[in-house]
Design the sequence.
């Protein structure tokens, strides 16, 4: 008879869910205690290390997670054979492979593990359903949306039977199913599923829980895609307000929420409002002297894009000179430095200052000329024009920029 591990699990406090670093510290202490009291290779210590590895994965330390999980999977198999603990460790290893971009290895591992989980734990056991959910996410990443949808529909039904319709795991699977339907272009199904998931999260976890906020963000994205920008704006504003109340003005989650709201404003044709919220966010980061350009850069680039769309040439140049000074862009690494110099060239060209734009582009090309694994000087122009076309320009603007840049290059 299949083992049943389908009992519900108590949810973490919201503060812990929103602080992955705290989770890691707690898990490291627990691992040390269990290794001391039960032994390093005990099932208890191995299971705790498994959880610690997933916490590492959650804060982006994927290689550290992989190192722990690969060793753990091997030790579990040596210690307890083809057991539920071993299969759970291998399922977690597949998740870390996925996080590390090793999709083929992750998929192959889950394809091997899932039938064994069905046999040992049962088709509707939580461990089995979690593995099935993870495999569906991989299939979606690989473009196999039809199979992903079939797996997720079965997963949602399984969670409903095992845990109930409002359990967070059920809601997460329903949200994942909505995202796959969205990827396939079935907006009606995606919207229906996302609305149900969001309502469930609000009822079970409350408005301010991180999972609720993620679900509401996803729903807002679907509203935007479905041609309902006002609803998207309303939800993105609600998510931003809640995140600000919990995390302040400059947390990375808040910065992303600001950018999402700006996108919704742009979809609804409210470029000035988009520009306003982005400038407000950037000003907050500048007031706190945050020099983490990985947080500031998306906001800066989006402001550039809007100024380009609004054709505010002088403001565009002033903003570029203030926020993309040589001192600042030199901290973006060689490729980032070169890219932002090239972007400056395009900006000056579009403002009618082609000769200055050409100077920026030549400086950019000189930075990467002869460097391994970077575009050659001769190929940089085409690459940067293509990149900027995809990110901040439309095709007509690209053609104008190309003409003016080439004219400036010929004049120097």
Sequence:
């Amino acid at each position: 008879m299949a083992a049943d591990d389908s009992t519900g699990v108590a949810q973490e406090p919201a503060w812990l869910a929103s602080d992955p670093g705290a989770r890691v510290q707690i898990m490291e202490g627990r691992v040390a205690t269990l290794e001391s009291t039960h032994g390093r290779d005990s099932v208890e210590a191995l299971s705790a290390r498994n959880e610690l590895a997933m916490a590492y994965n959650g804060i982006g330390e994927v290689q550290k997670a992989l190192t722990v999980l690969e060793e753990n999977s091997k030790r579990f198999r040596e210690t307890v054979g083809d057991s539920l603990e071993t299969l759970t460790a291998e399922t977690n290893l597949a998740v870390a492979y996925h996080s590390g971009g090793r999709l083929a290895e992750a998929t192959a591992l889950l394809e091997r593990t899932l039938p064994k989980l069905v046999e040992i734990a049962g088709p509707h056991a939580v461990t089995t359903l979690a593995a099935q959910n993870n495999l569906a996410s991989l299939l979606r990443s690989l473009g196999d949306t039809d199979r992903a949808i079939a797996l997720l529909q079965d997963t949602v039904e399984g969670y409903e039977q095992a845990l109930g319709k409002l359990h967070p795991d059920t809601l997460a699977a329903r949200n994942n199913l909505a995202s796959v339907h969205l990827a396939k272009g079935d907006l009606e199904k995606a919207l229906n599923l996302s609305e149900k998931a969001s309502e469930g999260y609000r009822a079970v976890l409350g408005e301010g829980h991180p999972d609720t906020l993620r679900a509401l963000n996803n729903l807002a994205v679907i509203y935007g895609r479905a041609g309902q920008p006002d609803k998207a704006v309303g939800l993105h504003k609600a998510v931003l307000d809640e995140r600000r109340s919990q995390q302040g003005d400059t947390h990375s989650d808040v910065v992303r929420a600001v950018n999402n709201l700006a996108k919704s404003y742009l979809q609804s044709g409210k470029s000035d409002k988009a520009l306003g919220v982005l400038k407000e966010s950037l000003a907050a980061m500048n007031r706190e002297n945050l020099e983490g350009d990985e947080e500031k850069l998306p906001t800066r680039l989006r402001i550039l894009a809007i100024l380009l769309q609004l054709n505010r040439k002088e403001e565009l140049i002033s903003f570029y000179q203030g926020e993309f000074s040589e001192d600042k862009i030199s901290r973006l690494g060689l490729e980032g430095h070169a890219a932002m110099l090239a972007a400056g060239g395009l900006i000056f060209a579009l403002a009618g200052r082609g000769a200055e734009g050409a100077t920026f582009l030549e400086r950019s090309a000189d930075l990467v000329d002869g460097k391994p694994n970077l575009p050659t000087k001769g190929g940089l122009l085409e690459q940067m024009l293509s990149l900027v076309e995809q990110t901040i320009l439309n095709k007509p603007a690209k053609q104008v920029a190309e003409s003016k840049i080439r004219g400036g290059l010929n004049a120097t």
Residues 323-412 form one domain. The first helix runs from residue 14 to 17. Confidence is low (pLDDT under 50) at residues 1-16, 374-378, 389-398, 404-412.
